[in-house]
Write a structure and sequence with these properties.
This protein has 162 residues and is mostly helical. Helices cover 40% and strands 0% of the residues. The longest helix is centred in the N-terminal third of the chain and has 17 residues.
């Protein structure tokens, strides 16, 4: 009898301790989330200009990664000279800022067949004009034209008989 009582009391105590936060921490059962300030962002992978993949060298630091200080300086100190934005036609034809990327003749033919770069310059004005001349009436015009029922005068109406 005492064995059963001792076993039940011990199991009850273990169940209570399993729900306790400090016990979970002590036993290592707590989920630890990473600290947002401790996690380092890795620079994205980039293709080399000639598209030939060089084998990685073990232990060598990534060339595109910067130290925390360099990242902070880059965020705080913006470059003084602005890089020129590519024109729409150049961008549409596959010419980008990357000097190593050249669009193929197939890409250029596809873009020219799709009509890229041939859009009208006053497209917004045409759309506004079309919107103004739509045949659909506005909601207010529909309300004004709507036939209204006559207002009932309660004094002239016959009273219902019950």
């Amino acid at each position: 009898m005492t064995k059963i009582l001792t076993l039940s009391v011990c199991s009850f105590i273990l169940v209570l301790l399993a729900g306790c936060d400090s016990t979970k921490k002590f036993l290592g059962m707590e989920n630890k989330q990473p600290d947002a300030f401790e996690v380092m962002n890795r620079a994205p992978l980039e293709l080399p200009p000639d598209f030939d993949l060089r084998p990685p060298e073990p232990g060598k630091k990534r060339p595109q990664e910067m130290t925390k200080r360099q990242q902070a300086e880059q965020q705080l100190i913006k470059p003084t000279q602005q890089t020129p934005q590519p024109q729409v036609s150049d961008k549409a034809l596959g010419k980008t800022r990357r000097s190593h990327y050249k669009s193929t003749s197939g890409e250029q033919a596809f873009l020219s067949q799709a009509g890229v770069g041939k859009s009208s310059t006053n497209l917004k004005n045409k759309m506004r004009q079309q919107e103004m001349t739509d045949s659909e009436d506005s909601f207010l015009k529909q309300l004004a034209r709507e036939k209204k029922d006559p207002v009932i005068n309660p004094y002239t109406e016959p009273t219902p008989k019950s």
